[in-house]
Amino acid sequence: MLAKTCLSCGYRGPALQGPARALRCPGCGADLYARPPRSYAELEGFLPSEDTIDMHVAGSTGRGRRQRVRRARSFAFRVLVMGLIITPPLVVVAAAGALAAIWMLRG
């Protein structure tokens, strides 16, 4: 569960374990710098992997939260606009249907 594995071929040899790792997989020759080997626990999120720690430190400016807030506001605005566009015709159709029903009941 904690043994590092090549994500391309599944190789788990001693060259991938420990701090001094190989840059190429001995099993398939894959570039381990671009796609580092990970353990099962890292893949499932039980343990943070080294590259995800670097990404969190690099992206800690709060930019992600601002983007989510911006997207949420944009979505809310679109829902509001669509509601304003769709609702008036439905009200008119409902009112016309009610008037037609009243007219039919009279006659």
Summarize the entry for a quick read.
The protein is an all-alpha fold and 107 residues long.
Describe this structure in words.
With 107 residues, the protein is mainly α. The protein contains three helices and no strands. The protein has helices at residues 40-44, 50-58, 63-106.
Percent strand equals under 5%
Radius of gyration: 29 Å
Number of β-strand runs: 0
Please state the structural category: mainly alpha
Number of helices: 3
Mean pLDDT equals 79
What pattern of helices and strands is seen along the backbone? HHH
Largest sheet: number of strands, sense, barrel closure: none
The coarse overall form would be rod-shaped
Q: Report the span from N to C terminus.
A: 81 Å
Residue windows where pLDDT falls under 50 for at least 5 positions: 53-59
